[in-house]
Amino acid sequence: METGSGDICTLPEGCISHVISLTSPADSCRSTAVCTTFLSAAVSDTVWERFLPPDYQSILSRAVHPVEYSSKKELFFRLCEPILIDDGKMSFSLDKSSGAKCCMLSARQLFIVWGDTPHYWTWHPLPDSRFSEVAELINVCWLDVGGTIQSRVLTPKTIYAAYLIFKVDQNSRGLGFPNQETTVKLGSQVSKHTVNLQPIAAKRLMRTRLRMLNLIWNATEEGHADAEENQIAARTPQARADGWMEMEMGEFYNDDSEDGEVELSLMEVKRGNWKSGLTIQGIEIRPKKRMEFVIPCTQSKIGA
Which regions form coiled coils (predicted)? Predict the structure, then answer.
């Protein structure tokens, strides 16, 4: 590249570092392709310190295992992978695209009705869980799971979503019908949704019920439509790369002027039918994804 009076690469490296630090981690990685001056500036501690949360030192002090790093950039990408904090009852990570905080409350951090009664719930380790133990539902008719997190520990001016991280056993029962209800609340913000933890079982049961209706009551087309609409209206889970399922429970905007408690809940207490075969790892709170792109310097596909 030819240099001249109008060439941005002739600016002092410190000035370029300052400008890059006002962008995002993804933009910083892209800027390394501009010229050698940008490459040097984009990897500096000045830039990556800005992308780390202001309280990162406090977070590191709460880590179960020490986090080793040789530069602020290395620390940033080290924290993009979850680390255990608070005696292993919570995990913390950073969103690669924005640097926003992500947290997962372990099952032990949640309020589970009858959770301490072995007849209803059992606790045990699983190799693919990030926590030392998970909660497995043995048999309950009252499903009530909830948790809280202080909004101040999350990144301000960020739209967050909460996700139940779980598995459903093949021999489970009562989780496909009726639907469950989720609530995510922060101050005056209330996000409520109808969800279904096991839509395959729900569809199977619905087909059986419709056949019975046809045989007994000669169900009308309207009855069929109502039954299908009931299932379509429910949110369904998505598979994760780590082998677990996740159900989006709701979202909220974390305004920097609002310091409060985020309340999270999953419930099904109306029908009183018995349920079993649900394993809960925790509830994850992370920024709401909008699009996907690739950070050039890490060759990692991430969300924005």
Answer: none
Spell out, as residue ranges, where the chain has pLDDT lower than 70.
1-14, 16-18, 20-23, 27, 31-35, 37-41, 201-232, 257-258, 290-304
Give per-residue burial for 54-65: e unless 16+ CB within 10 Å, then b. Answer: eebeebbeeeee
Listed in sequence order, the residues at least 6 apart from 125 whose beta carbon sits closer than 8 Å to its beta carbon are 132, 133, 134
Of 255, 296, 291, 253, nearest to 25 by C-alpha is 296
User: Comparing C-alpha atoms, which of 136, 128, 126, 114 is closest to residue 277?
Assistant: 136
Give the CA distances from residue 257 to residues 22, 55, 58, 82, 101, in Å, rounded to whole numbers and listed in that order: 22, 18, 22, 27, 17
Element (H, E) at 225: helix 221-232
- Give bridge partners of residue 239 from the DSSP assignment: 245
Q: Which residues contact 102 (CB under 8 A, 6 or more apart)?
A: 82, 92, 93, 94, 95, 284, 285, 286, 287
Q: Could you identify the residue written with the tokens 């998505």?
A: 238
Q: Is the pTM of this model over 0.85?
A: no
In which residue are the tokens 């809280």 written?
148
